[in-house]
Write a structure and sequence with these properties.
The protein contains three helices and five strands; from the N terminus they run αβββαβαβ. α2 crosses α3. With 141 residues, the chain is α/β, with parallel strands linked by helices. The relative contact order is 0.13. It has helices at residues 16-32, 83-94, 112-125, and strands at 61-65, 71-73, 76-77, 102-106, 130-132.
Length: 141
C-alpha cells in the first residue's frame, strides 16, 4: 500500500493586524495620560556649625571579647589585641577616671587568657570596680 503524502504547508502568521492593534493602544495611552506636576515642598535643612565636638565620658566601661580574641571597648573594635592597645583605649575612653565601673564580657568559646589579659590591664590602670558579665543559658532549668 503506497500512501501519497502531501507536503505540509507551513502556516503563515499575518502580524499586520497585531501591529495595528498595538500601535492603536500605544496612541490611546499616550493621549489619555495626564501629566500632573507634583507639588513641591520647600524645606530649609539645618546646617552644621563649626563648634568643637566634646566627647562625653561614659558612666560605665565595657570590654567585650570575641571568640577570636578581638577586643571591643564600649562597642568600638580595637586594631589589635596587644595589652598596650587595650590600655590606651581604656585611658582614652575613661578620660583617666579609674573609679568608673568596668564590665568584662567574653564569648563562651573565647580563651581564658583573653579575659585575664583584660583584667590585668584594667588592674594595672587602677580600676577597682571590675565585674565579669555572664549570660544564663535559656535551655537550663
Amino acid at each position: 500500500m503506497k500512501l501519497n503524502l502531501r507536503p505540509r504547508a507551513e502556516p503563515e502568521v499575518n502580524l499586520t493586524s497585531l501591529i495595528d492593534v498595538v500601535l492603536l493602544l500605544l496612541i490611546f495611552f499616550m493621549v489619555s495620560t495626564s501629566f500632573v506636576k507634583q507639588s513641591q515642598i520647600s524645606i530649609r535643612l539645618p546646617e552644621a556649625q563649626n563648634t568643637p565636638v566634646v566627647e562625653e565620658v561614659p558612666d560605665q566601661l565595657e570590654i567585650m571579647i570575641t571568640e577570636q580574641g578581638t577586643y571591643l571597648v564600649n562597642g568600638r573594635e580595637l586594631v589589635n589585641n596587644r595589652p598596650e592597645t587595650i590600655r590606651n583605649a581604656l585611658q582614652k575612653v575613661s578620660g583617666g577616671n579609674t573609679a568608673l565601673p568596668l564590665t568584662i564580657s567574653a564569648d563562651a568559646n573565647a580563651r581564658h587568657q583573653y579575659v585575664v589579659t583584660a583584667m590585668d590591664v584594667a588592674g594595672k590602670l587602677g580600676f577597682v570596680q571590675i565585674s565579669i558579665a555572664t549570660v544564663n543559658d535559656p535551655t537550663d532549668p
